[in-house]
Design goal:
- Strands 11-12-6-17-18 form a five-stranded mixed beta sheet, with no helix packed on it. Strands 2-3-8-9 form a four-stranded antiparallel beta sheet, with no helix packed on it.
- Strand 11 and strand 12 form a beta hairpin.
- It is an all-beta fold.
- Helices cover about 0% and strands about 45% of the residues.
- It is built from no helices and 18 strands.
Length: about 200
């Protein structure tokens, strides 16, 4: 793996075929490993959380000094989760502050993530809560609708996983309907918060 623009890799002079592996972004990438802690995204999702990888295998196409052209097609390895949260019954005049200050936590998720470029294996050994990023709809000047998002680890979703909405001193909790997160996908929920419960519908 080149450490800088001056560290150039060359094809073997004997014409041997080679395989190319790459991942992006390179932030938090060291010694062949990319690592990230997904637990706190409340201040916005860091760009380097969006892990993308690719492999151009010599088993599928010839890559050597006489055929040096390499096409890299990257794929997303994690899952993007989006909640569109609206204020429902019991919020009074939602056209004023509405859901301003809303905080959302996704419980019982894989948090510490590691990707090995050499083996192309993504792993997570730590389970905990994820604080999601929350902002009002960009198309509105009021806080009636909030867009809440996070990058999450793909795979089966624990039956104990919950969405916890906190607004001031009030807390609303609902189950997470998804049974699994698919790598490279975007999953969107429409959520309506009422004073007595949170209703979540998958779209």
């Amino acid at each position: 793996v080149p450490d800088s623009n001056n560290d150039i890799l060359y094809f073997p002079i004997d014409g041997e075929n080679v395989t190319f592996k790459a991942c992006s972004p390179n932030e938090n990438f060291k010694d062949g490993l990319w690592e990230a802690d997904l637990s706190d995204q409340s201040n916005g999702i860091p760009l380097y959380f969006d892990l993308m990888t690719t492999t151009a295998s010599s088993n599928e196409k010839t890559y050597n000094e006489t055929a040096p052209s390499v096409s890299l097609e990257f794929e997303h390895r994690l899952t993007y989760l989006m909640l569109v949260v609206s204020s429902g019954e019991g919020f009074g005049n939602a056209a004023t502050d509405g859901l301003k200050g809303l905080q959302v936590t996704l419980t019982n998720q894989k948090t510490s993530v590691s990707y090995n470029l050499s083996t192309d294996v993504l792993t997570s050994e730590t389970t905990g809560d994820i604080k999601m990023s929350s902002r009002k709809s960009q198309s509105s000047s009021i806080y009636k609708t909030m867009h809440v998002s996070a990058i999450v680890y793909p795979g089966a979703v624990s039956s104990d996983s919950k969405l916890v909405f906190t607004l001031g001193e009030e807390t609303f909790t609902t189950d997470l309907p998804a049974e699994s997160f698919t790598a490279g996908s975007k999953l969107t929920y429409n959520v309506t918060l009422n004073r007595y419960k949170a209703e979540a519908d998958v779209t």
